[in-house]
Each structure stands twice: as structure tokens, then as C-alpha cells.
Amino acid sequence: MKHFAIIGSPVGHSLSPLLHNWVFKALNIQAEYKKIRVEEEELPDIIQQIRNGKLDGCNVTIPHKENIMKFLDEINPRAESISSVNCIMKSNSKIIGNNTDWFGFTMALKENKIDLSNKEVIVLGAGGTAKSILFSLKQLGANKIILLNRTLHKAEALKDDIITPYSMGNTESVLKNDSIIINTTPIGMQSNQSPIELGLIQKNQILIDVIYNPLETSFLKIGNKIGAKTLNGLDMLIHQGLASLDLWFGESLSKQVNFTLLKTYIETKLC
User: Fold this and answer.
1) Does residue 221 have an active-site annotation?
2) What pTM was computed for the model?
3) Residues of the chain where predicted confidence (pLDDT) is lower than 50
4) Cys bridge to 31: 2, 82, 116, 143, which one at CB 3.0-4.6 A?
5) Pairing label, strands 31-37, 180-183
6) Which of 2, 54, 65, 269 is an active site residue?
């Protein structure tokens, strides 16, 4: 029996156990996946559990996607360039960090026919998830990214030829009536709050939220109500989770999974 987990704080919202345990049952794999609430000072203990075989791997959620990196033996070059790790595995006695978030987001957009090539995109937040999204946006051909964050210096650290940082106080001035807006913050996960004023949301905008629980945040609810195109974080969650499985088991298990059945199962559990 193999043992996997999602680590973070908070972690109660995570649907990763639902996802992975469904796959294990569907593919007849002897494994289990659980949630572990972990504070920053406990991260070395989690790494030790992977090192000694108590855990065979884990996913990482807020707020540890960046903090975890200093405890790893090796980091995949792509995860290193993103500066964010959400998947940890052991290989040849080394604890290795990977990033599957960027892949999950890329697949979610492609499947939902959202084309960002040569587009201006507004990203809310500058944490570990945002870094993965920014990497994905560049791969997808976005030609300008406006990065809004509550703490300006954190956004400024990500500035480059494509990314222009602003504080959240500038939100109204940078939004357009056809903006593509991506929320990477946890705002809306455990409350009815929205990362931007609801009055700024318009019909011709595209609204994307990486939050998947609830499936419809206040941010997306207003968009749906007025007819804007919206996308929640569930497709991203599933694709990054399946990519993690492929890394842990060293084979393409994802190709054996019925994506539609898995997604329907998770949606049913949330309703």
C-alpha cells in the first residue's frame, strides 16, 4: 500500500483526496491519499516522512509552494524556473520537487477553448500559484500580463518584459470591458468575498478562478449572472493531480482515467 497526501494550511477545502482515491479505486491501485494540515515549522518533518517511506509523495497547497523548496534535495528545472513546487516525490533516495500546476492550468484553458495568444491578461495575486499561472500564460502566447497584488513589492519581484506589476488599488484603472481576469488568490474560498469589486465585472470579460471549492465563487457568480465566460479551478485541479500521479508512479496512468467520469464524481460531491 502506497501513501500520498496533500499538505497545506488550511487544507480542509482540498478535493485532492476525492480525486486521487477515486483514481486508485478505478485503476485498482493499492494506495491511499489523505489531507495533512501542516504549518511552516512542520515542513522538515513531512520531508522526513517521504525520506523514510512513511509517505510516497505529496502535493503542496497554500501557503507552502515556495517555502517547501529549501527543504528539497533537487528541484525539476521547470519548477525551479517557476519558483514554485506543488508535487514532491522520491527518486533514487532523493526528494525531488516538481510543478504540475502550470500544466493543469494550460490543459484547462485548452479544453475550454480559451485562446490567450497575443492577448493582454490580468492576474490577481503573486504567490506560488500565480507563478505557475504566469509561466503557463507565457507558454500560451499572452503578450502582456498585468499583475495585481495587495503587496506591490511581491509583484515587482516578478516584473519582466511581459509582466507589469501594480498594487490592487489600481484594479479599476487597468480593467477593460473585455479584460481576461485570472484570480490566483484564495479570496472567495472560505467567504463570499471577491478579489475585485463586483461592480467592475462586465459581460464581455473572461473570468477565471483557480478556486474549485466552492465551484462558483462570488467572483464567478456575478460573471455567470451577467453572461460573461467563466471557468473555475476544477479542470486545473484534475489535470495537475493526474500529472502528479504520472510522476509518482513513473507511468502514464492519466491516460487510463476517464476525465469526464472523474469530474462528474467530484462535482456531485460538491453539490
Assistant:
1) no
2) 0.96
3) none
4) 2
5) unpaired
6) 65
